[in-house]
Design goal:
The protein is mainly alpha-helical. The protein contains five helices and no strands. Helices cover about 85% and strands about 0% of the residues. The mean pLDDT is about 80.
Length: about 130
């Protein structure tokens, strides 16, 4: 792992926040499509030509249900994981700031810094 400065940890935190936004955007998109399909049921019911074909309405409702059901597979665990990673990255960043300001022997400084880098590396590798 390459040396990283405390300020550079902000980039990693921003990446995690971007991941959360992506998960939520996808979820809202799927939910919107499902709701629109359910609402389109009313259009089909009011159309005289389509009213004769109840199977089409049933199929539309099934598709809408499928979209909304797919929302249940939304990776909520991934969002929670991103929040955990953000907390760990902020903790590592604070430790790096503290380490920069500490008056300790160089060997201890390097050992502690390497441990912090190891933690950051583990956090990053789990997000890939």
């Amino acid at each position: 792992m390459f040396p990283i400065e405390p300020e550079e940890v902000d980039v990693l935190i921003k990446n995690q926040k971007r991941s959360i936004i992506t998960y939520l955007t996808f979820s809202i998109f799927i939910l919107t499509i499902g709701i629109l399909l359910i609402l389109s049921k009313d259009i089909f019911e009011n159309n005289k030509l389509l009213k004769q074909n109840d199977d089409l309405i049933k199929q539309v409702i099934k598709v809408a249900g499928g979209f909304i059901a797919s929302l249940t597979s939304f990776p909520l665990r991934s969002v929670l994981s991103c929040f955990d990673k953000i907390s760990l990255l902020k903790l590592a960043q604070n430790k790096l700031f503290e380490l920069q300001n500490a008056k300790i022997p160089k060997k201890e400084y390097l050992d502690t810094r390497n441990q912090i880098f190891g933690t950051i590396e583990i956090v990053i590798s789990k997000s890939l």
